[in-house]
């Protein structure tokens, strides 16, 4: 029998609305699952069960009284530990903030509370979100639910694991070079990278940089979309936030896939890709491509994307962490130090070139969709690797020049400022979750979400492409 904690968020919310499931019952189920699984996985790092239970009882009373219920009413939510939560420890994965307890919520968190979300816990993340292996000096490493000795990806790794393991039905994420998409792929859940400003974020160190975005995570596209409804807002302090974003509301809906044109790309023409992952992608895409009106293989022209990404990422790291590096170097982890120091070596001429090259990449990417409705590609270049290893040093025998290069499948697209959904698509050659990206241009959020939502149902009908399901008993084994 399905435990309440294993219900999709949309199903749980529908049952709450019908008074068929109590928010208290749901929270108790989540707490039981946390007790069973969080020890070996280390996904949730600051938990306030007492406050969450008080909130659940109030939500239950509102449900029984027939009050107007928010879109997330009674649903426990995990918040990535890069966002302030009032009264709940917020460390940013850094020893610098090891004991911080904010007095106020970040605006995104406040919106989730206002729409009925029950903030249960913080989810683990690399220090300041730097890196795609969820580990930090405060809390340690987060394990993959399908093999706790392997990485869950990052930097939204704790969120992905908590979702896959049934600890919470919804969790927040954020994405720069793939911080949301990689862990969703490695853990078999859905993650959504929206267009800049759709989920406003006024806390970016470089406000005019569109590359870092906040986004929702869930077990399904519909779950992520439901959380997105609470996250969408208008905030004039974010220069990418505008009133048109408020139009993305209401039912998600489906599309006729037989009217959709799709370009497939295994490696975007520029990304290192493990040979077995390439084979899996070709097999899986061949299994479902017939549902579309037309398909072909085509790589987007991402130009000099690797150097462009390194330079512009360096600008953000220097802006965010130079002072920390000067004052607290002994407390910082290797990723923050490495990125900041490399960023400081670039010249103004380098930054000007990167900004110009990124503009060309963006404009060519827009043109790419003159023929294709969406681009589909893998979400990760390798199978999950041991989390004791900081990053894959080699792919197909080729040495990676930086600790980020293995993420080119995601950061290459980031430089084109896309909107993208990561969908589970079965398991890989090692039995670990395998994910694909459904990608569109900036502003195509509604189209991409609906195509992904519809395709997800097609994938669920085939055991080879269906979402892998976590078994709590596997941790004991």
Structure notes:
It is built from 14 helices and 17 strands. It is α+β, with helices and mostly antiparallel strands and 477 residues long.
- Coarse morphology: globular
Structural class by SSE content: alpha+beta
- The CATH superfamily turns out to be Amidase signature (AS) domain
Sheet with the most strands?
11 strands, mixed
Tell me the count of domains. 1
Would you give the CATH topology? Amidase signature (AS) enzymes
Helix content: 25-40%
Q: What's the N-to-C terminus distance? A: 21 Å
- For the CA atoms, what is the radius of gyration? 21 Å
Q: What does the average pLDDT come to? A: 97
How many extended strands? 17
Topology record:
Layout: H1 9-17, H2 23-41, E1 44-47, H3 49-65, E2 76-80, H4 107-114, E3 118-123, E4 135-136, E5 140-141, E6 143-144, E7 147-151, H5 157-164, E8 170-175, H6 181-187, E9 190-193, E10 213-218, H7 221-231, E11 261-264, H8 275-288, E12 294-297, H9 305-328, H10 334-344, H11 348-368, E13 374-378, E14 394-395, E15 398-399, H12 408-414, E16 419-427, E17 433-440, H13 445-460, H14 473-476
Parallel strand pairs: 2-3, 2-8, 11-12, 11-13
Antiparallel strand pairs: 1-3, 4-5, 6-7, 8-10, 9-10, 9-16, 13-17, 14-15, 16-17
């Amino acid at each position: 029998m399905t435990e309440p904690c294993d219900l999709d968020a949309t199903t749980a919310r529908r049952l709450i609305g019908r008074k068929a499931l109590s928010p208290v019952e749901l929270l108790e189920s989540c707490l039981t699952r946390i007790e069973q699984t969080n020890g070996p996985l280390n996904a949730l790092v600051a938990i306030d069960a007492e406050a969450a239970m008080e909130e659940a009882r109030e939500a239950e009373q509102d449900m029984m009284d027939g009050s107007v219920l928010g879109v997330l009413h009674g649903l426990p939510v995990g918040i990535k530990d890069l966002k302030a939560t009032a009264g709940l420890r917020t460390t940013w994965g850094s020893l610098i903030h090891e004991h911080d307890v904010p007095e106020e919520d970040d605006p995104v968190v406040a919106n989730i509370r206002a729409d009925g979300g029950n903030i249960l816990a913080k989810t683990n993340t690399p220090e300041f979100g730097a890196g795609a292996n969820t580990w930090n000096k405060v809390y340690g490493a987060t394990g993959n639910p399908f093999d706790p000795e392997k990485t869950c990806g990052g930097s939204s790794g704790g969120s992905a694991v908590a979702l896959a393991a049934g600890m919470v039905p919804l969790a927040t994420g954020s994405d720069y070079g793939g911080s949301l998409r990689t862990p969703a792929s490695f853990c078999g859940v859905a993650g959504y990278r929206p267009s800049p400003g759709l989920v406003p974020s006024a806390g970016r160190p470089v406000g005019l940089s569109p590359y870092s975005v906040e986004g929702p995570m869930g077990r399904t596209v519909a779950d992520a979309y439901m959380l997105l409804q609470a996250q969408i807002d208008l905030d004039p302090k974010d220069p990418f936030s505008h009133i048109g974003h408020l139009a993305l509301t209401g039912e998600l809906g489906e599309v006729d896939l037989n009217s959709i044109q799709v370009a497939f790309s295994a490696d975007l023409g520029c990304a290192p890709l493990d040979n077995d992952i390439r084979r899996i992608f070709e097999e899986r895409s061949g299994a479902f491509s017939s549902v579309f009106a037309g398909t072909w293989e085509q790589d987007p022209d991402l130009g000099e994307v690797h150097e462009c990404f390194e330079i512009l990422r360096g600008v953000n790291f220097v802006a965010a962490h130079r002072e920390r590096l000067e004052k607290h170097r002994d407390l910082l982890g290797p990723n923050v130090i490495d990125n900041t120091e490399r960023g400081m070596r670039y010249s103004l001429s380098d930054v000007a070139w990167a900004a110009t090259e990124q503009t060309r990449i963006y404009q060519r990417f827009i043109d790419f969709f003159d023929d294709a409705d969406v681009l589909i590609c893998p979400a990760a270049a390798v199978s999950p690797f041991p989390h004791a290893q900081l990053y894959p040093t080699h792919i197909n025998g080729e040495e990676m020049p930086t600790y980020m290069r293995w993420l080119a499948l995601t950061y290459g697209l980031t430089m084109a400022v896309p909107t993208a959904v990561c969908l589970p698509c079965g398991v890989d050659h090692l039995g670990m979750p395998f994910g694909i990206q459904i990608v569109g241009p900036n502003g195509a959020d509604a189209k991409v979400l609906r195509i992904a939502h519809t395709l997800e149902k097609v994938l669920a009908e085939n055991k080879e492409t269906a979402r892998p399901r976590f078994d709590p008993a596997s941790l004991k084994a």
